[in-house]
Design goal:
The protein has 320 residues and is of the alpha/beta class. It has 7 helices and 17 strands. A hairpin with a 2-residue loop joins strand 1 and strand 2. The N and C termini lie far apart (91 Å).
Length: 320
């Protein structure tokens, strides 16, 4: 029941996130026993690189607390759609948080919205859609693969959000979204190989006031054909977006500072001058441009010299 709402303490049968590091998290169900490959009931012990943990020992622990493993420690976190996306078992390719956030925003989903999703897949987007529409809205999610649809249905029930979602085994490109949903939907999302085939069915599903439509496609050719279908069915404000996730890296760099301590001294009768000059004897003479800086007058002059080996000298001369 840990997805249905926030809570402070872990209970038996909760799905929790075991946090080992930013790139090492696991979703586990807190039960005393599980069935192994031989069909026998054994203790539910989760193995990690930092040792083992009996999951039933998490019951009564506060979410966010540190728990001891046999060779180290971990944190137990309450699951969220974002954490579930990072830890869920992949039955298909999934949609990640960067794209999910834009999809929910562009579909203008809010509590009370009625939303269609096709296909369900691994349920990554489904959890975010359910969070956005509950507790007065509803998600209708479709998948043409019967086993995946059944697994998603069981997963939603296990997470305590089954009341806010209905899972269908159905080919929406051929058969549409069922007659019961015609004229009842606020938003439609498609993640299909041929989304343009489902556009006419989406038009039927929208309320009389209209609705928002989104199709997620990996290829620009799919997007082009879908846009043509949307234009044919009089959709407005058609846009194609690409979401690129970029990491900002902050670096510290040390830059050498010019030594100007001599400027700090108050000199009235003398002007301090720092000159870089060259003396180098060779048979071949070549000109060298030498810069001089007068600290007080802030005047820069240049001189020509011979081939060089650099030296630095600091001296003063009296002002006349």
């Amino acid at each position: 029941m840990s997805f249905a709402g926030t809570k402070s303490v872990v209970e038996e049968n909760d799905t929790v996130i075991l946090y080992l590091s930013i790139n090492n998290m696991h979703a586990v169900q807190v039960t005393a026993k599980l069935t192994n490959k031989d069909g026998k009931l054994v203790d539910n012990v989760f193995q990690t690189q930092f040792g083992a943990l009996k999951l039933i020992s998490l019951v009564g622990k506060e979410y966010g607390s540190k728990v001891k493993l046999t060779k180290g420690w971990a944190y137990v976190l309450q699951p969220s759609p974002e954490l579930w996306t990072l830890t869920l078992p992949h039955r298909t390719q999934i949609i990640y948080t960067a794209d999910i956030s834009m999809i929910v925003y562009q579909l203008e989903i809010k509590p009370g919205s009625v939303v269609i999703e096709s296909g369900t897949g691994s349920g990554s987007l489904s959890h975010s859609l359910i969070r956005a529409v509950k507790s007065t809205g509803h998600l209708h999610t479709f998948d043409f693969h019967e086993v995946r649809a059944q697994m998603a249905r069981e997963e939603f029930q296990q997470h305590g959000i089954g009341d806010f979602v209905t899972v269908y085994h159905r080919d929406v490109c051929t058969n549409g979204f069922t007659e019961a949903l015609n004229g009842a939907v606020d938003a439609v999302f498609l993640d299909l190989p041929a989304p343009w085939l489902a556009v006419p069915h989406a038009v039927k599903a929208f309320k009389n006031s209209g609705g928002r439509f989104c199709s997620f496609s990996p290829c620009i050719e799919q997007s082009q054909r879908c846009c043509e279908a949307l234009d044919t069915h009089k959709f407005a404000e058609i846009q194609t977006m690409e979401i690129i996730h970029m990491e900002s890296i902050v670096k510290t760099r040390h830059i050498p500072v010019l030594e100007l301590d001599f400027v700090k001294h108050k000199v009235r009768d003398f002007i301090a001058v720092s000159i870089t000059f060259a003396t180098y004897r060779t048979k071949r003479e070549s000109p060298l441009l030498i810069w001089t800086l007068c600290a007080h007058s802030q005047h820069v002059g240049c001189y020509w010299g011979k081939n060089f080996a650099l030296q630095h000298k600091h001296f003063c001369y009296q002002r006349k």
